Amino acid sequence: MLVGSLTYTLFMVTFLFPSNWLLYLMSGVLGAGAAITWTGQGNFLARCSDLSSISRNSGIFWALLQCSMFFGNIFVYYQFQAKEHIDADTRNVVIGVLTAVAILGIVFLAALRPMPDNSVGTSEAQRQEQQNRTGWGSAVYAFKSAGKLFITRDMLLLSVAFLYTGMELSFFSGVYGPSIGFTKKIHTTPKEIVGLAGICIGAGEVFGGGLFGILAKKTTRFGRDPIVIAGYVIHMVAFFLIFLNLPDNAPFKDTEDISYLDPPRPWVALLCAFMLGLGDACMNTQIYSMLGGVYVKNSVGAFALFKFTQSTAAAISFFYSSHLGLRAQLGILVVFGTLGTACFCIVEWAVKRRQRESPEDSRTVSQDSRSVSYDK
């Protein structure tokens, strides 16, 4: 987590020295850093939790994480307000503040106390074997372990949900905002609505994460599937409203075109932004709860596969988003959202069934078989 966070800070510092080659280089470094950061913090979250607290901790983690989007967008919105051109002084202030916050975050990460491995069901001999592996041997062992986990039935099903989270992440972070800004009839200064939309997305993320943290006991009792289904419904409503509100060519350039609402409504755009954030919180908090609660025996591999699949989907989505109209992109999201929700629910129902059959210990997932098994 510490090494990964350094790459985030270095990436931000590069904006003080605008350069195409430097931006591309540090983007690749940031991608590598993000992979180890998310895998590490997922494993750390699993080590800090048990079955009774994983839902609460996932919600709190997600709410705190998304505060950056909420407060960061507010800060940037006021810094960039009424500016047609971002001058060097404004850029330096923004990057300087964000870099200072990132450095403060690194200090707090460095102060975290080590957490013991709580891999229930793993024998002492297996743990000792893992600890004795160093260097490339450890890396190869982790890679093989993740590979075996990936080809299990439940992880393959969950991968469909991971794909959807990557697609909708790239949509609301890279497509939706510019689509609002390019729709000239939505407001006299549509670029300002883009900043407000970012704030609303962050508000939805924080609200969702905080809500699920507070209601963690009910989540544990009734399962994760109702929240994922709720997130799916919220996203489908948001996609339908976006379909009605924004024109098909909005992702590409400034346009005077309209969709079904004439003129496009700013409040609908902001409502959809909040719903996109809230639905994303529904999905991701429950995925974290699933991986940290059920795959605790191999939480590193589980979170690594999650980030790998999600990032692959995000990269593919960013590629086709520059070629497909808004309606085609919404159609793809509807299809994968439906499939991803269904696959997640299938796994969750299987987990519930196994918990009833083996209530003493349902957290130990065997990665050595093609179907997930639970050992007492």
Automatic annotation (TrEMBL):
Annotated transmembrane regions: 20-39, 60-80, 92-112, 155-173, 193-215, 227-247, 267-288, 300-320, 332-351
Assigned keywords, A-Z: Glycoprotein, Membrane, Transmembrane, Transmembrane helix
Gene3D superfamilies: MFS general substrate transporter like domains (1.20.1250.20)
Membrane topology classification: Multi-pass membrane protein
Pfam hit, one: UNC-93
Predominant cellular place of this UniProt entry's protein: membrane
Record InterPro entries: Ion_channel_UNC-93 (IPR010291), MFS_trans_sf (IPR036259), UNC-93-like_regulator (IPR051617)
Localisation per UniProt entry: Membrane
Gene Ontology cellular component terms for the protein in this record: membrane
Family under the similarity heading: Belongs to the unc-93 family.
Name used for this protein in its record: UNC93-like protein MFSD11
Species of origin: Ceratitis capitata (Mediterranean fruit fly)
